[in-house]
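Subject: Sanity check before I submit

Could someone independently write out the structure tokens for this chain? I want to compare against mine line by line before I put it in a report. The sequence has 487 residues.
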Amino acid sequence: MGIMDFSKLLAEVNNFVWGPVMLVLLVGTGIFLTVRLKFLPWRNLGYAIHMVFSKRDKHAGDISPFQSLMTALSATIGTGNIVGVATAMVLGGPGALVWMWISAAFGLSTKYGESVLAVKYRETNSVGEMAGGPMYAMKNGIKNKYVGRTLAFLFSLFVVLASFGIGNMTQANSIAAALSSSYGIPTWLIGGVIAIMALSVLVRGIRSIGFVSSIIVPVMAAFYFLVSIVVICANFEAVPAGIAEMFRMAFSVDSVAGGIGGSIVASMLTSMRWGVARGVFSNEAGLGSAPIAAAAARTDHASRQGYVNMTGTFFDTMIICMLTGLVIASSGVLGTVDPATGKLVSGVQLTILAFSTVFGPYAKLIVSVSIALFAFSTILGWEYYGEKALEYLIEKRPVIMAYRIIFSLVTFVGATTTLEVVWNFSDTMNGLMIIPNLICLLWLNKDIAEECFDYEEHVVTFEKKGEQIDYQGESEAAEDELAGQKS
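---
Independent answer below. Compare away.
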């Protein structure tokens, strides 16, 4: 099989993995869990956001609940929040943004469920660190050991392979492309700086990643929030019409965009496909990646960390992606045709064009800095995901240390070369993580529901009244039982 045939095969597999069938399964799982949990992830969203900023870290774990969320957000808030949203609005019309929101709403329950299982079935490794995620839920939670271990092996393999592409090379390439095209900085220099910075953080493990993420993620999110709000306020007269156009095109059978979309034509199905696809790709609800970080958190109940981590979907898609969408919609640049190519302006160039309506030539700087911060944080988060997946496959510390070093050095390759086959391959591996993870979520939905309802009864009802509860109950009993089985 030649390179062209292999590339074509990858493209076909990719179309299925990120196509309508898989997206329906993803959203369908979210809908099922939302109903199964009696809409508690929705009803307790405010409570969950409040918990993100509360100090509760005296329990077993490696990092605080806040650092765990920031590590997960560092991997999910990436170039997709800037480039992906712009692409979705061009290919799927302004209505794609509405479908991103809808998929994120059900993604809250998916992210909650997978994070609960990650904490419930986590283990302690040879150096005293927490090891958890969907692979441990599959191994320890699914009674049929053959099925559980097979799913765990496949999921871990897909994570390791995806980590070098989606979580590494593509991110480094995005940083290099943004800084090189905007300011002419040599890609080899950018690649060298990224590699050194990544190595200095990653070689020290999860505590270092959690500490750096807890600084970078809030800073970059606040920066992007502020500059986006400035653009939205400056173009506020166009915001109501823009929002109305989004909803009109999101549910219109076949529609041509009005004032905010120029000549873009998109049916409801097109808007749905691109909105859901970009939303899932951005917030990773259902991929099973974020629960790996959730398992490292210090917490007294699996459900507590489930609530904390599900807010990642809220912050990523319902806040950051929505800001990008409103910036583009209110600026009037959507549907702009590039005179040089005759094609619609899309991706990062569309986002820069939108910001330039207020910030002029400084728009390049704003978007370049945002992409650099978002992408670098993604590299940190995905290294941890890949490391824990590799640790599940090969329980040898020298291998883990070698992975950290190699992962850091590979960022240089990503920054200085463009390998389309590698991009497609890693994209496919990223999507294939969904299959074993969804099987696990549906298989263990009873475990998720029991944790959810137990926590609601013994903790949430009291904490909403202002009482502080440190739960010592069924979750700890389950962990003791699991430890007894292993001994």
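---
OP: Matches mine. For the report I'm noting this point. Confidence is low (pLDDT under 50) at residues 256-262, 474-483.
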